[in-house]
Specification:
Elements lengths: L17 H8 L15 H9 L11 H10 L5 E6 L8 H8 L1 H15 L3 E7 L3 H12 L3 H4 L3 E7 L8 H10 L21 E5 H13 L1 H4 L10 E8 L5 E6 L4 H7 L7 E6 L5 E4 H4 L6 H6 L8 E6 L4 H14 L6 H18 L7 H12 L7 H15 L1 H10 L15 H6 L1
Amino acid sequence: MSLPRLLAGLDPAGALPLDAHVAVHGELPPSTAGRRQDAPALIEELGRSGLSGRGGAGFPTAQKLGAVLAARGRPVIVVNGCEGEPASEKDRLLLERTPHLVIDGAVACARAVDADQIIFAVDADAPTARWAVQAALAERPDTGRRGLDTTVVAIPPGYVSGQESAIVNFVNRGIPKPTAVPPMVFERGVGRRPTLVNNAETVAQVGLIARCGADWFRRLGTQDQPGSALVTLTGAIAEPGVFEIEYGSTLDSLIAAAGGTVSPIRAVLLGGYGGTWVDSAGAIGLRLAAEPLRVVGASLGPGVIIALPESACPVAETVRVATWLAGESAGQCGPCVHGLAAIARTLADVADGRGGPEAGGRLGRWAELVTRRGACAHPDGVARFVASALRVFADEFADHAHYGRCTACARRPVLRLPERFALAG
């Protein structure tokens, strides 16, 4: 089967109702899983499919289900529809337009691990997504009759509030901040019960594999990274938006599918604001799969690709995003609170020509010091974003360190931030 898969039957007018969804994808087959102690067929099929998480970490989905199944207690399923990454739109699109596919995947996961509760976590800033899921659940009263309690929870917006332990912490205590591990959420999560947290795209993929099987899933993609994925492509692009790609396809082909670029490109950001900058020369012909991206120190992460035009100032863009990311700290870990703030301040000083000759060295040391030092991966992502910017835009940073701000600094930013921050800035 060719593309689209996840986006098949997408209706520009709004969410697919249940009858239209079934017409496109067919009925979700009945569970073949038996009692809890049995080896559920779906987990085995997911293992054969090679499906990995689409939220950024890329953890094998079958292993997550197996870990929850092996834990003590009746499991809970959490569908993570929160996109703290400002440049990402894919999970919101799925919830708003194909909510039944996401629900199918959640129901399939619940059957596989004998869960009795499904929680759909949606960003509070995405009311349309929340209403679409609630309306879709209302079309499926049979879900409740099968012993599945379903709830839609609005999570306060924030870059780290979509992290899995932050969602569990909010459901349990009303605090959307990550918690230190162990215990992991698959051991003790919602209500101290084993909890499976997967993002909306991963769950939707489960809904497809439950219908079509592992062999069908592997017809697309590469041997090491099978299947398709959703990416949000923005920046100097003629038709930006959410696209479904086959793993292993080239960045060039994706940009061509989006109508091409509207101006010359200076660099491409892969993986969002916790991702990696790649110079435009290095991005030519780049294949969008784990191994080719690893060679250039990058990954797709949450599926964000941003083409930065040559007309933009990469130094100003970096300072603006780093300043926002520093402010998004949960305020719980010293390296994150103080380290990210120091990095952002020093970047701003460099942009203004006030950093001094030692600024570059300090930034490099601080980036190393904050990595793997937080309760969550937030400081790691900031360090990766800043370090790659300093490398790719070394000439521009050197010019700013010597001469101060340039004329391009005042241009409209390319890297999108939440409106509440943009207005405050």
